[in-house]
Amino acid sequence: MPFTDFEYISVVIIGGGQAGLSASYCLKQRGVDSHIILEKHRIAHSWRTERWDTFCLVTPNHQCRLPGHPYDGDDPEGFMVKDEIVDYIERYARKFDPPVREGVTVTSVTKRDGYFHVTTDNGNWFCDDVIVAIGSFHIPFVPAGAERIPDSIKQIHSVDYKRPSQIPDGETLIVGAGQSGVQIMEDLHLEGRKVHLCLGNAPRSPRRYRGKDAVTWLEEMGYYKTSFAEHPDQAKALSSTNHYLTGRDGGHEIDLRQFALEGVKLYGFVENIDFEKFTVRQDIASKLDSADRSYNGICQRIDDYIAENNIDAPPGAHYEPVWLPENEPTTLDFAENNITSIVWC
Prior knowledge:
Number of domains: 2
């Protein structure tokens, strides 16, 4: 495609969420007005359409600090729900009027003749720089083999889950125990639904510890200022997943052992998908132990910080398991467990 079919602009930002808007704000602050944001849908689309009804942040509101737009509400220690998050981002956009074009799908980005060439379904640009601000997990992942599961079992991905009433009668299997998986599990469990959960490698975190939210302690300790270059274990930093906990109902930690006591059935990592069953690893105990080590490791770092800085704080106790698996199944049969739905997380 010749240059004549492209319009020049200094910077193209792909994605109109909080990252894309923040990039635009920072460019404006530096005098780079020649830029554009290309958004496939609407500003804050994923927050608006790809979250469940009870979704809320897992970090306290006071940590919402988009450049030039810190949290200004009356509940800094609370956790914004979905609609409040959308409003926060929309107010940000109204505040500095970024150059957004909504409803534009980027089809390719190539580099030639010293410029990036960005083609879309509604215009083409060549530019000096491209900022990709679409997030790491914008494409839902469903593992190979899911197509072999009987049609009688409803399958949905977490991006499409909204509320328990979506889920048919019977028992539900959730695959993945990261933040989305455990929070959807809790959403269903609190509605009295029978839930099965296949574990993954996500660590967990305390919610409040020694008088403060654990996230607040970690920020005070400088944990979030550690750059990738300074990180002591860069390989782990690249591959690790976020700790699971929740901001629901004022915020609390997620203890899968406690949920097991309350009737949630836990399984190991899924190794194979057969027509009517999963083959799972016998690693329930090891995965729970690993998550608990992470939990207690955070507690210990906070303890050390308090001691080193002679901070007056209430005492804290490290976690002791409240449940241990009596057996480690190797299979999960759908019919035997009356599983009528699967949520991929």
